[in-house]
Amino acid sequence: MAVTILAIESSCDDTSVAVIRDGCVLSNLIANQEIHMSYGGVVPELASRAHQANIVPVTNEAIIKAGINITDINAVAFTRGPGLLGSLLVGTSFAKGFALALDIPLIEVNHLQAHVLTHFILEKGKESRLPSFPFMCLLVSGGHTRIIVIKSHLEMEVIGNTIDDAAGEAFDKCGKVMGFSYPAGPQIDKLANDGNKNAFRFAKPSVKGLDFSFSGLKTSFLYFLRDRLKEDPDFIENNKADLCASLQYVIVSILIGKLVKASSLTGIREIGIAGGVSANSGLRKGMKEEADKRNWNLFIPEFRYTTDNAAMIGITGYYKYLKGEFSGQEITPLARY
Ligand code: KG4
Ligand code: ZN
Fold first, then answer.
1. DSSP 81-107
2. In this structure, which ligand is nearest to the CA of 14?
3. Would the CA dihedral through 51, 56, 57, 59 be positive or negative?
4. Phi then psi for 157, rounded to 5 degrees?
5. Ligand 2 mean position, distance from CA 9 (Å)
6. pLDDT per residue over 280-298, tens digit each?
């Protein structure tokens, strides 16, 4: 019998609901919250209110678009964390109510594990190339920068982590200094295409092992701009594309450098990227070049699965369903998982 999962994602500023049947996406809807743009970052209180307004209509639409009946749903998967507590509470409470009303199992999902399992999402009519185990994934998002070894669908080990800021934060915070709205990452990516990546040099941090650090880069970028602005008040405007290209280049080099190291240490050549920053064109291109050079079997997610989405919660929920890993009604969200 087919297994149909309703999946809810509400960890940050996107309300997303998906329907997954036997690992295959039937619908995956995302309501973005544009309200945060002018604030330079996500405002938690506004995010949870927007989730409350969005969750019922988005769920309704996801069920209709999937072409299923509500009674076809076998379980409800939801993001338990990590994320903003108020936002998580909306999705968690909704999922609990939904499961209770239909008398079906509830499945908690770790948002980070879900980003990684993006690579196992199946799509109708599309030939799927799935990673084999062990698989190594660079998870790069607004809140996390990790190298993860995936031993099986539900068995993962973090072998590298950021000691301060995440890669997405480096994009967003440096972008904010240049006057971009939140999130700056996609805007920097776009402008970087017209810039010279060697125009300015920013030092790479020296962090031991497989860990990352991005806060030094952010500070040096800030000081660099401060000094240049003293000489030329229009420095940012006059050099925006070059600044974006140089900044993107150094962030991407740091990420790929550690991944190369991780691959040689572990011997794993089955390699992927996931999370919001995996949408970055410089990172995608750099990964393809590295994969060709090093004979990696490379997995790059479709753009729609890079940023937060419920399809990734659904695929994780599906594998947990197969193992009977269910949660009780007493479950509460976790800001830190
Ligand atoms: O995974 P995600 O949607 O949310 C978190 O779980 O954090 O990632 C959001 C992050 C933001 O920092 C955003 O600036 C970054 O992903 N991002 C990008 C690009 N698209 C999104 N960064 C660089 N280049 C992009 N094209
Ligand atoms: Zn995320």
1. ESS-HHHHHHHHHHHHHHHHHHT--EE
2. 1
3. positive
4. -135, 130
5. 9
6. 999 999 999 999 999 999 9
